[in-house]
Give the backbone structure.
Amino acid sequence: MDGGGSAVAAPLSSMDEQLALGHRLRDLFRAANAGGANRAPIVPLPVRLFVEDARRLIRAGLPLNDLPLSIPDVYFRYLEQVNPSQPQVPNFMTNPEMLKAAMLLAKLALGDDFIPKEFFRDDATGLLKEDGWAEPQKLDPVQRLIDNGILIEKTALGYRRLRFALDPIAEHLAAARYVRSCRRDAEWLRKLKNDAASAPGFLAAVELFASAMP
């Protein structure tokens, strides 16, 4: 209730807001399917994240024009929103640092067959060190991603194993790393798509990310 005793409208409670959001969703998937690839069916996860982002914008008094313009951006916006912005939190990482670490671990999670799977925490830590990250006692990117809810950890037979909480997040992060590394080499990108033919989730993510790149 506000000071006058009237109820405060919930985000997306008005017909105008719902219609505006519907148009934005239509544009999002229309852009994803541009070019004839048609590999972006309307699936629940990006729709849910998109709607949650719209609710956040409305609560903050911001326009829906600030919503992501591509499906890869929907996932990246979600990852940034769950990453703390307060430098005093343990294992603080800026959004670019967090995304860099997450993309590296997503590539590890997908492996050679491009299918999301469990991986050992020791392997993740070793890969991050090879990539130039600080020692875990100074900054532990793995723990930050666990605390953000992006990674899930379990221990079995004395081994600490990790997995991405959501397979599409892992697929899009790995696709981002691959596509960014080969965006100027069309032949390399074609080979990547051929190699990923038996991994439809990753292949769709590669095509979406490649089409969204400037």
About this structure: The longest helix spans residues 15-32. The mean pLDDT is 81.
